[in-house]
Amino acid sequence: KSRKSERQGFIPQEENAENPFEEIGTRPPPTTFRRGGRRRHFKSYDDYYRHLQSEYSQQQQYSPNALLYRVYPGLYPKGQSYCPNMRGMFAYTCQPSKPLRLDLVEFCKDYSAFCGVP
Predict the structure, then answer these.
(1) Could you give the CA distance from residue 71 to residue 104 in angstroms, rounded to a whole number?
(2) Could you tell me the end-to-end alpha-carbon distance of the chain, in angstroms, rounded to an integer?
(3) Are 68 and 103 in contact (CB under 8 A)?
(4) N or C: which end of the chain has fewer CB within 10 A?
């Protein structure tokens, strides 16, 4: 190959021209320090979500009508999972001096009576 064919398509650089990229200040990417052990690597999304589900399955139990119960928490069936599943809804909804719909007032009264919350 000739030198001409190697340089074909490139703009010739002048001898005394300054490199415009030398003026741009660069810095290395920020380093983060992670606590704990090595991050888990998952081969597929199914493995990832299965791992997440096993981690949080004891903390959150979703019902098939979760959206309905978020809007109307008084309709949630009272059973052994009622108190732990509706604890967050009670804490958010039944704050003191918060104006509530009538059905939400009933939910707050029912939850406090059923679960023994003052």
Answers:
(1) 9
(2) 88
(3) no
(4) C
**The model's pTM:** 0.45
Euclidean distance between CA atoms 63 and 27, whole angstroms? 49
- What is the C-alpha separation between 106 and 118, in angstroms, rounded? 14
Q: What is the DSSP letter of 10?
A: S
34 pLDDT higher than 80: no
CB 86 within 8 A of CB 111: yes
* Residue-level pLDDT at 112: 92
b/e map of 5-19 (b: 16 or more CB within 10 Å)? Answer: eeeeeeeeeeeeeee
Could you tell me if 78 and 114 are in contact, meaning their C-beta atoms sit under 8 angstroms apart?
yes
CB atoms within 10 A of CB 68: 12
